[in-house]
Amino acid sequence: MRVGILGGTGPLGRGLAARLAAAGTEVVIGSRQDERATATAGAILEAWPGRGLRVTGALNEETADTDIVVLAPPWDAAVPTARQLEGRLRGKVVVSVANALVRQGREMHALVPPRGSLASGVQAALPASAVAAAGHHLPADTLADLDARLEADVLVCADDAEAKSATMALFTAIEGLRALDAGSLASASAVEAFTAVLVTLNMRYKGHATLRLRGVDGTGA
Ligand SMILES: NC(=O)c1ccc[n+]([C@@H]2O[C@H](COP(=O)([O-])OP(=O)(O)OC[C@H]3O[C@@H](n4cnc5c(N)ncnc54)[C@H](OP(=O)(O)O)[C@@H]3O)[C@@H](O)[C@H]2O)c1
To answer: Which among 5, 6, 9, 143 is the best mutation to test ligand 1's pocket, defined by most ligand atoms within 8 Å of the CB?
Structure first.
């Protein structure tokens, strides 16, 4: 299976690409510029030699032709990017990782996008695709360091059963991650907004907190 990451040249895309590739997944990093995509893929391979990573770069348009597509441009470009590639994304599972956040002094605040969440906005822009929301609470810097210990839950929301199970499988393949079924896309608003609290905590305590839930064993959903 090939996974494409649109806007994959940013911190989240680079980190997720490294972790997915380390899990044996073939990854295509997408960009608006071919050279940036190729350079980013090359930098990952150079940083982690001898691990057999399969990472290449391509324009976002070609990246959208992969089997499952992660949408990772800045949050305010998520819906426009989806709309632009709608034709190529038909019939595919599209994973929205975007959080609509704004910094206010020493805090991050969550904005409320139209339809309540960015993931719902992306689903509306892609009526012929199956959108899942996931990965919002993962810290890009920890993802990018393959030697760093990663231990986190990934809350996955989707209306479509196939999108949910494919997305859960994608994140579960990464060592240290546990994917949990967090319900339909209606829950994505709360999942996205909570990221503001996590980032605020990390700013205050200079930490790398992510999410790990207790009291749920992750089976029998
Ligand atoms: N950073 C994190 O720790 C983290 C964690 C969880 C989720 N997220 C979410 O993941 C997404 C990516 O985060 P990031 O920090 O990696 O973002 P970013 O660096 O701001 O942007 C990622 C890439 O998007 C492309 N891009 C920039 N402006 C664009 C535009 N107007 N239209 C289309 N593409 C554009 C750029 O690539 P090219 O110039 O190469 O096209 C850029 O390298 C965000 O939606 C964020 O909310 C981030």
So the answer is: 9
**Cα 64 to ligand 1 centroid, rounded to whole Å:** 16
User: Could you tell me if residue 104 is inside a domain?
Assistant: yes
Q: Is residue 200 part of a domain?
A: yes
Q: Is residue 71 part of a domain?
A: yes
Note down the domain range covering 121. Answer: 2-205
Splitting the chain (221 residues) into consecutive groups of 10 residues, what average pLDDT does each group show?
Answer: 98 98 98 98 98 98 98 98 98 98 96 97 98 97 96 98 98 98 98 97 92 88 71
12: CA distance to ligand 1 center in Å?
A: 7
pLDDT at 217: 84
| The predicted structure's pLDDT at residue 75 | 98
In a domain, 211, yes or no: no
What CATH number is given to the structural domain containing 19? 3.40.50.720
Instruction: Confirm or reject: Cβ of 100 under 6 Å from ligand 1.
Output: no
Q: Quote the number of domains for the chain.
A: 1
User: In sequence order, which residues have a C-beta less than 8 Å from that of residue 57 and are 6 or more positions away?
Assistant: 8, 28, 29, 30, 31, 34, 36, 37, 38, 39, 40, 41, 42
Residue 24 CB–ligand 1 contact under 6 Å: no
